[in-house]
Write a structure and sequence with these properties.
Helix 1 crosses helix 2, helix 2 runs parallel beside helix 3 and helix 3 runs parallel beside helix 4. The protein is an alpha/beta fold. The chain has seven helices and five strands, in the order ααβαβαβααββα. The chain is globular and about 55 Å long. The strands form two sheets. The protein has a three-stranded parallel beta sheet with strand order 1-3-2, with helices on both faces. Strands 4-5 form a two-stranded parallel sheet.
Length: 223
């Protein structure tokens, strides 16, 4: 979800206003996905690299995350949204960790759509923690015996299918360490829309584009 800061800058507002506008946009897109029957939606809210940003901006993002969790849980339950938060949560304040756990528990039985929020997440971190978790679960085996199928259950998103469509807003054309394993065969859709401007109509456009792709997964014939 790229472009919050530029959206705010274009309006001569502080970055915090852009992030708040971006958070509001999340609700619209989650609803649109649920209405279209999309079973899983993942959003990249805060990367492992985002700690490099100015301290006041990071603090603002953490406060926004807490506010979002407090305000949106009831709405999620009303709309059948199951929330999952993946990433290294140990770096977050205990109060935020508690809110995350509470929100996940409260929405655990919802089945309409699963919303995965990636926070303090990085694709490299995910593969590294999965490898460590596998090794801890198999102390009598060497890494030579590790297979793709063996590692997959230890990824942070093991509960979800692999990524089909990866959308990046804001005019950038890179994946920026997002779900590197899970998006190995994802179709990549890049748009110049800044995230607060990314509308359900643009989402529909991306899905129509995706539906027209010839997905072969390395084979010679479409599946």
């Amino acid at each position: 979800m790229d472009g919050n800061r530029r959206w705010a800058k274009n309006k001569f507002m502080p970055a915090a206003v852009g992030h708040a506008a971006g958070a509001k946009r999340v609700r619209d897109i989650v609803k649109a996905c649920a209405d279209m029957g999309v079973p899983h939606l993942s959003i990249f809210a805060f990367s492992t690299e985002n700690w490099k940003r100015p301290a006041d901006e990071v603090s603002s993002l953490m406060n926004l995350f807490m506010t979002y969790l407090q305000k949106e849980v009831d709405n999620m339950n009303d709309n059948g949204v199951r929330l999952k938060v993946v990433g290294d949560k140990t770096r977050f304040a205990p109060s935020l960790q508690e809110l995350i756990a509470r929100a996940e528990t409260q929405t655990a039985n919802n089945t309409r759509i699963t919303l995965t929020v990636c926070a303090n997440y990085g694709g490299r971190w995910d593969m590294l923690q999965a490898t460590r978790a596998w090794q801890q679960a198999h102390p009598d085996q060497t890494l030579q015996s590790l297979t793709e199928e063996g590692l997959a259950p230890y990824l942070s998103t093991a509960y979800a299918p692999e990524v089909d469509l990866l959308i990046r807003t804001g005019g950038e054309s890179r994946v920026s360490n997002f779900m590197l394993w899970q998006a190995a065969y994802a179709e990549l859709f890049f748009t110049d829309d800044l995230w607060p401007n990314f509308s359900p109509a643009r989402l529909q456009e991306a899905i129509v584009w995706f539906a027209g792709r010839d997905r072969r997964f390395g084979s010679s014939a479409p599946l």
